[in-house]
Write a structure and sequence with these properties.
By secondary structure, the protein is an alpha/beta fold. Helix content is 54%, strand content 11%. The protein has 14 helices and 7 strands.
Length: 410
């Protein structure tokens, strides 16, 4: 009845089937959130129930987690309806479009949007029992009591939980099996489909083959790999920069949603930071690169200390300003260092080859996030830039000594 259904939020509204069911059950209003405008358009045209034309329905083309962060409404029912695109946010991360929707923090955000007596529910064809158990364990942890569960073939399951146990009435209450349930995922390690904190063997094989092919290609283009030895600092810069770019994608996906528009803005911001760094290096000469490295390490320390999840409480303009400073500030400084170093190289092709191989290493190291999480990637970045700084400063001091000897002889 309308008394029990009331106000409904459907995340993953898709072609409108769940929205239509909510309307038939007497929903007073439905907020239908769908990340893909094309899927919504198909549902608007072809769904025979025409739910998206009902005046009680309010459509939001948005990322589900981002909507929960911005929306101040309270609901009698919140439904996660098949939100599993299994699509990567970008080639620079292991993050999927729906990854931040299933973390403990996301479920806690959904819980905060429930009215007294409200119910949170999710359903899907989960394919693996441990995945069902992980999500059920997440609900148990966040709500403080186990959810109701209905299961079907292929581990299809419906999980439902209320603010308090009496808000739901069900025949089956979830209980973990003899082996327990995998721990819930969080915003730092949002890898729902990875059962343990490890890098799958298939990934390692694929990464090894990519590395081998890249080494062969660079060897054929540049020449002997030992010729890159004088540019080892550029190698480590390339690895660190790719990780910085990956971290930027991750931060913005969490703070503003995993939409293609947000991703486009991130890459535009990265390119703009790179361009600004090149122009800065063109107009200014830095006599001692140690100052630039010190500024970079200070900025990386601040970015590591401030967890992105803390920024979610800020208003959007402040959140955007903080995200730009924390993400693009290190990228700008890193590229000032790179541009200042690159203009002094004797063989640009060889130097660029070293930097390209470093970027390959950075792409491989990004998968370390599957084990340590995204936040600690900044520690890896700092270590890589420390290696680049030590090597670069040695070259700088050696060149400075040669100049001094030349002036003395003159």
């Amino acid at each position: 009845s309308a008394k029990h259904v009331g106000r409904v939020l459907v995340i993953g509204a898709g072609n409108g089937i769940d929205t239509a069911v909510a309307l038939r059950q007497g929903a007073v209003s439905v907020d239908a959130v769908e990340i893909d405008p094309r899927i919504f358009e198909i549902g608007r045209r072809l769904n025979p129930d025409k739910p998206y034309t009902d005046p009680r329905v309010h459509v939001h083309i948005d990322d589900g987690r981002a909507f929960l962060q911005r929306d101040a409404g309270r609901y009698d029912l919140i439904l996660f309806a098949l939100p599993d695109s299994l699509t990567l946010v970008s080639g620079q991360s292991s993050l999927r479009l729906e990854s931040y929707l299933f973390t403990s923090e996301a479920v806690a955000s959904a819980r905060a949007h429930l009215r007294p007596g409200g119910v949170f529910a999710m359903y899907n064809v989960y394919r693996e029992q441990w995945l069902v158990d992980r999500l059920a364990q997440t609900l148990d942890t966040v709500f403080g009591h186990p959810p109701c569960i209905d299961t079907f073939q292929l581990h299809t399951a419906v999980l439902a939980v209320g603010l308090v146990p009496r808000d739901t009435s069900c025949a089956n209450v979830w209980r973990p099996g003899p082996e327990g349930a995998p721990a819930p995922v969080n915003d730092d390690r949002p890898f729902l489909y990875l059962k343990t904190a490890s890098i799958p063997g298939l990934y390692l094989v694929a990464l090894g083959l990519i590395a081998l092919c890249s080494l062969i290609a660079v060897r054929l283009t540049v020449g002997p790999l030992r010729s890159m030895r004088p540019y080892a600092d550029l190698f480590f810069m390339g690895a660190a920069f790719l990780l910085l770019e990956t971290k930027s994608v991750i931060v913005f996906a969490l703070l503003f949603g995993s939409t293609w528009f947000v991703n486009a803005l991130v890459f535009f911001g990265v390119l703009l930071a790179v361009y600004a760094a090149i122009e800065t290096a063109k107009r200014f000469t830095f006599r001692n690169p140690a100052i630039l490295y010190a500024a970079l390490f200070a900025w990386l320390t601040v970015a590591w200390a401030i967890e992105p999840s803390r920024l979610l409480a800020l208003d959007v303009p402040l959140r955007l300003a903080a995200a730009i400073a924390l993400s693009f500030g290190p990228i700008f400084l890193a590229n000032v260092i790179f541009a200042d170093r690159f203009r002094s190289v004797a063989a640009s092709t060889v130097a660029f080859g070293a930097n390209l191989l470093g970027a390959l290493l950075g792409g491989i190291l990004e998968y370390a996030s599957l084990v340590v999480g995204y936040r600690d990637l900044l520690i890896v970045v700092a270590l890589l830039y420390a290696l680049a700084g030590v090597i670069g400063m040695r070259a700088y001091l050696a060149a400075r000594g040669d100049d001094s000897r030349s002036r003395s002889l003159a």
